[in-house]
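Just wondering, can you check both lines?
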Amino acid sequence: MTTPERPHPAPEPEDVPVLGGSGPDPERVRRFWSVRRIPAALLAAVVLGGAGLLLYDVAAVRADHSAMSWRRELADDLATRPLDSATTLAVAGAVVLLGVWLLVLASTPGLRAVLPMRRTHPDLRAGLDRDAAALALRDRAMEVSGVQSVKVRVGRAKVAVRAVSHFRPLDDVRADVSTVLTAGVEELGLAHAPALTVRVERPSKKG
């Protein structure tokens, strides 16, 4: 006589760690970096063109041909022009500004229009466009009774809401809009929940 086998208990689902949330020690969620194709392409084109032209001129001189007139004039001008002249200072200032701009592009993430979202898995990253977030919050605010129109601006650290109410007390409308949008901001799933400011006013009188 054989004893029936006991069914194996179903494995319990594993908890998925939530990264970048509002827990006691959330992992820092970084912004998305822009590839900056246009500045990189422009810089590469300028460097490639200048290096190619200079290399061609040097090769021509090595082959017993005369150097290009622009290089001779540039060398003579650099040898005779004083360093404190207005032209020299202007060109130097422009080069410094260009270098600072390139350093800023290289050291900042860019993509300011994309807000990082909370990470539910360490291998996945998601972002939300600011305009899409503003549209979602606007739709939520329009559901509040008494709201005639809403303008929403979503930033990295702040959500500014300006609503127009044509009936109901303004304090009641403001409280309802704040409650609805507080829940709406939380449902967006952003890694860093922005602060919410709500302003409610009456429609302007025409005429």
Residues 185 and 193 are 7 Å apart (CA to CA).
